[in-house]
Amino acid sequence: MGFAGIAIGAAMAGLKPVCEFMSFNFSMQAIDQVINSAAKASYMSAGIISVPVVFRGPNGALLGGSASHSQCFAAWYGHCPGLKVVSPYSSEDSKGLLKASIRDPNPVIFLENNCMYNKVFEMSDEAMDTDFLLPIGKAKVERQGHHCTLVSFSKFVGLSLQAAEELAGIGVECEVINLRTIRPVDEKAILKSVRKTKHLVTIEGGWPQFGVGAEICSIVVESEVFHHLKAPVSRVTGADVPLPYAKTLEQNAVPQIANITRSVKKLLNIK
Fold first, then answer.
1. What is the distance between the alpha carbons of residues 152 and 177, in angstroms, rounded to a whole number?
2. Distance from C-alpha of 226 to C-alpha of 199, rounded to nearest angstrom
3. Which of 88, 133, 183, 257 is the most buried (most CB within 10 A)?
4. Contact, 177 vs 145, CB < 8 A?
5. What CATH number belongs to 140-267?
6. CA distances in angstroms from 197 to 153, 191, 204, listed in the order given
């Protein structure tokens, strides 16, 4: 709470602080500062006070981290007006979005995945440029497809791509959308894809109730794209339990590739 408050005060005074939580689970010790001081300051001051602070750190299931170190905070902070919430998948995402977050005049929650720090990604020449930025609020289509839309973020974009590759072996082409940003979410990208594929599966590591996938489902069913759906929307989420410590239990409590492929086959009525 102390260093989160210091960072918010520094941002109000004109600096651009980046406040790193060793684990985003520890942000619960500072959530009053993040929500009541950072997120609401602009609104409560009629725009006079801006808080350009970035809160970043590890998020989601940590292998062997147990219940108190393995929560996904995308839905927690995505619920709060006044914040922007970013969750990168690749190295390109991380670089372009972190730089954009630091330049943004609003408080930004930057959710990095616990298990992705040692992953290696190719970087394009464009991404290696010093001035490379990615726009906050813009999703990326990681794979084109026409049978089913898979919408995910962070680590689970990788699982979605692996599932799409496996399904391609039986002739099912899935379109994979990397949200990149949780708030504001790129509704246009989601609706455009679902209008084309007419099927939707959302994938996330967080709990099912009131989650990111639930919000995406609402976006679709409350739009005219709902009438294009040929089957109910399906959600793949973490289990509705505190994450277990034991390895075998942990693996069964977070989404796996088989969960995704099974959901797609069920929507498309494939045995």
1. 6
2. 10
3. 88
4. no
5. 3.40.50.920
6. 19, 10, 20
How many CB atoms are closer than 10 A to CB 22? 10
Q: Which CATH class is domain 2-128?
A: alpha beta
| pLDDT score at 200 | 98
- What residue ranges do the domains of the chain occupy? 2-128, 140-267
Per the structure block, which two tokens stand in for 28? Answer: 């619960």
* Tokens (6 digits) for 209: 């109730």
182, 174, 165, 177: which is closest to 198 by C-alpha? 174
By the 8 A CB rule, do 102 and 94 touch?
no
Q: In this structure, what token pair is assigned to residue 226?
A: 């709902």
Give the pLDDT of residue 194: 98
Closest to 66 in 3D by CA, of 214, 253, 270: 253
**pTM of this prediction?**
0.96
Which pLDDT band, with edges at 50, 70 and 90, does 79 fall under?
A: very high
Query: 216: closest CA among 267, 226, 227, 101?
Result: 226
